[in-house]
Design goal:
The complex is a heterodimer. Chain A contains seven helices and twelve strands. By secondary structure, chain A is of the alpha/beta class. A six-stranded parallel beta sheet of chain A has the order 1-12-7-4-2-3. In chain A, strands 8-5-6-9 form a four-stranded mixed beta sheet. In chain A, strands 10-11 form a two-stranded antiparallel ribbon. Chain B folds into three domains: 131 residues, Fumarate Reductase Iron-sulfur Protein, Chain B, domain 2; 245 residues, Rossmann fold (3-Layer(aba) Sandwich); 67 residues, no CATH class. Chain B is built from 23 helices and ten strands. In chain B, helix 2 runs antiparallel to helix 12, helix 9 packs parallel to helix 10 and helix 16 runs parallel beside helix 19. Chain B is elongated, with a radius of gyration of 26 Å. The chains are: A alpha/beta, B alpha/beta. Chains A and B meet through helix 1, helix 2, helix 3, helix 6 and helix 7 of A and helix 2, helix 3, helix 4, strand 1 and helix 8 of B.
């Protein structure tokens, strides 16, 4: 007897014997555009570093994420301490990284390194999770985190607030740049999860009214150094 | 006995008569139109973006034999396991078996219409598993024991008072009229369930052949949690979800968000490549993807309507459809509502039984205009009508059209017939004739002219 895979593949091959017409396109350019030649019809991400920062800042405001610009790591560390004080956090989780460790120096609340076989229940009780990120996309205001380098899967989603530490040179123009970067960086092996985080968690399920913090973090802070 | 058609007609009538509910739906969609247009304006050329999105899906679907094989190979190389399901029953059995083998007790789900299509929850509950929907809208619909009203906005038909009462009844919480507080009630209730669940079940918006990743789009973070905390992750996806390259998402993700919900990007767009890898602190130890056919290959075999498989389930066609706005989501009686549902369902469940949905359209083309991947939706409704008639011509149609053809070939007889028709038209309006009397309920027949066109013409020439 044939396996389900063989049956389905055979059905597909038979189905594709008759060719389908191409969609009715409005332009001739799109079909011929090679993938990475830029897409001058999508929203603009900015050509220069300054332009990208402007686009990013506008997008983060609209997304209700909070951007904190600082000059260096010591200022970043003070900014985090101030944030933890005003938000009255009791426990902040982070993952092992040079930047996160430098950042928590002045934080007044309890800090906890959630690495390797950590307790899920304890992470659930944390007010904030602090992570690094892979890159930031100006075009969409997205922060990219991976499970292999930015603290796994839960740290950026389970605590009630998410704080991201990044440097300005991590800001990219558009999604295409980000996908190229991801593929070059992980050419041999993809991390098990890569997430594009675009603002704090939200829902509109009740009467299409926007509410922040549906299941993921209610607040998203980006501390941008440089 | 009620047939899908008679059920549809009576449900649609009841929904249409509820003027207050129709007004509520329009109001709920009002904000969507505004934000969608704001976001569309940010595209330097929306039409070119639609072209690119349509071509990305066309390329993947028309090479499905290759793209699907590439996806499966690359996915398994990352450490996950692929399962193939010819139909709903096979998919349910595969998922049940994974849960049994994992010794699961509690299952948490993130929103997945394909699991609705195969009626997964009933099957898992029958086997004794606790299954909880974690998307807020789906959670509410599960408590109400109702299917989703709209496949992107599952409970958009409900007012906050109804949701508050529902939560009081099932969760014992105090009444509130604040959407924010209602959302927080669900948040608090579900948090522990993510931590306790053994298995997380999700769908997939895209299967990336090039890298063997699946892509999941969501706003709430419930899918992120579903795929992070349980020790087993199962994703169910239709075979048509595959795309060729990772970079195709640079077009498809923003298009999905803008067309579907008027957002620049959905809040979380996440790529999953496999189970937890060495060196990663958390994540499931098993990752299964179930690839479902369930008649999709039959639709693939129809080149005329193959592009219906390009659908990225954004829901834009529902949001603009005058029929959906009047009859709502339940009357369709289908997993997928609105224009795309009316196109797909006859293929998935049988053309003769579901062809009435092809008539649930004003053929205005608003759906086709809204579709980010350029599916020729309203023409496919016509194609389904034609196919249904070709496959099964009713006796009435045969007699009526036969007689009409015979008469029209005889000019004198035709002229005489016209005379009779003009004379009896006022009478026809009063008789309870099948088809005609239903049609006349909301329409007025014009007065019959005194003379036929041919007589008028002759008169004007002389």
């Amino acid at each position: 007897m044939k396996s389900a895979q063989e049956t389905i593949m055979q059905r597909i091959r038979e189905a594709l014997r008759l060719p389908a017409a191409k969609p009715h396109l409005k332009s001739t350019a799109a079909s011929g555009t090679p993938a990475k030649a830029g897409r001058p019809w999508l929203p603009d991400g900015g050509e220069t570093p300054d332009a990208r920062l402007t686009v990013l800042t506008e997008n983060l405001i609209k997304l209700k994420a909070q951007l904190i610009r600082v000059a260096d790591m010591s200022q970043a560390s003070l900014a985090l301490a101030e944030l933890s004080r005003t938000k009255q956090w009791k426990r902040l989780a982070y993952h092992a990284h040079m930047d996160t460790q430098a950042l928590i120096k002045h934080v007044g609340c309890e800090t906890w390194q959630a690495d390797a076989e950590f307790d899920k229940q304890k992470l659930e009780s944390c007010d904030a999770g602090l992570t690094t990120c892979e890159a930031i996309v100006a075009q969409t205001g997205s922060i990219i985190v991976s499970s292999s380098t930015n603290g796994g899967r839960s740290l950026s989603i389970l605590p009630h607030a998410h704080v991201v530490i990044a440097r300005v040179d991590q800001v990219m123009g558009d999604l295409s740049d980000a996908f190229t970067f991801i593929q070059q960086r992980n050419s041999d092996h993809m991390p098990s999860m890569i997430s594009f985080i675009t603002g704090p968690s939200r829902t509109g399920d009740i009467e299409r009214i926007l509410v922040l913090g549906a299941h993921g973090p209610k607040e998203l802070f980006l501390i941008l150094v440089g | 006995m009620s047939t899908p058609r008679s059920q549809f007609l009576s449900d649609a009538q009841v929904a249409t008569d509820d003027v207050a509910q129709r007004g509520f739906l329009r109001q709920a969609l009002g904000g969507y139109y505004v934000s969608r247009d704001v976001q569309k304006a940010r595209y330097r050329d929306w039409e070119q973006a639609r072209d690119a999105a349509a071509m990305a899906k066309w390329n993947a679907v028309n090479r499905l034999d290759r793209t699907l094989t590439t996806f499966a190979t690359n996915f398994e190389r990352n450490g996950g396991k692929i399962h193939w399901a010819r139909d709903s029953a096979e998919a349910r059995e595969i998922i049940s078996k994974i849960c049994r083998d994992a010794g699961a007790k509690a299952i948490i789900k993130s929103k997945c219409m394909t699991t609705e299509e195969i009626h997964l929850n009933d099957a898992l509950e029958a086997e004794g598993y606790g299954v909880v929907e974690s998307d807020l809208g789906e959670f509410i619909q599960q408590l109400r024991k109702e299917p989703p009203f709209h496949f992107v906005f599952p409970c958009m038909h409900l007012k906050r008072e109804a949701i508050s009462e529902l939560f009081t009844k099932h969760l014992g919480t105090a009444a509130t009229d604040s959407p924010e507080e209602l959302t927080m009630i669900a948040r608090r209730h579900l948090r522990q369930l993510y931590v306790d669940a053994d298995v997380g079940i999700s769908g997939a918006n895209f299967l990336v052949a090039e890298t063997g990743q699946i892509s999941i789009t969501e706003n709430e973070g419930n899918a992120r949690l579903t795929c992070a905390l349980p020790r087993v992750h199962i994703a169910l996806a239709g075979i048509e979800k595959v795309i060729e390259r990772l970079d195709d998402l640079a077009v498809l993700l923003p298009m999905l968000a803008t067309a579907g919900a008027g957002q620049p990007m959905t809040c979380y767009n996440t790529l999953y490549a496999g189970p937890r890898q060495p060196g990663e602190p958390d994540g499931p130890s098993e990752f299964h993807v179930v690839l479902l056919d369930n008649k999709r290959t039959a639709l693939l075999a129809d080149p005329e309507q193959r592009d219906a498989l390009h659908c990225i389930r954004c829901g834009a066609c529902l949001n603009v459809c005058p029929i959906f706005k009047n009859i709502g989501g339940f009357a369709y009686g289908t997993t997928y509502q609105g224009p795309i549902g009316s196109v797909l369902t006859p293929h998935l469940r049988g053309l003769q039984q579901w062809n009435h949905l092809s008539g649930a359209s004003s053929l205005c083309g608003a759906c086709t205009e809204a579709c980010p991947v350029r599916i020729d939706l309203h023409h496919h409704l016509l194609h389904n009508r034609r196919n249904a008639v070709l496959a099964h011509v009713s006796l009435f149609d045969r007699l009526f059209h036969g007689a009409f053809g015979w008469v029209i070939g005889r000019p004198k007889l035709f002229a005489f017939g016209g005379k009779v028709f003009r004379a009896t038209l006022p009478l026809l309006k009063k008789l309870p004739l099948p088809y005609l009397s239903t049609w006349l309920k909301s329409r007025e027949l014009p007065e019959a002219p005194k003379k036929s066109f041919r007589d008028e013409w002759k008169g004007s020439q002389s």
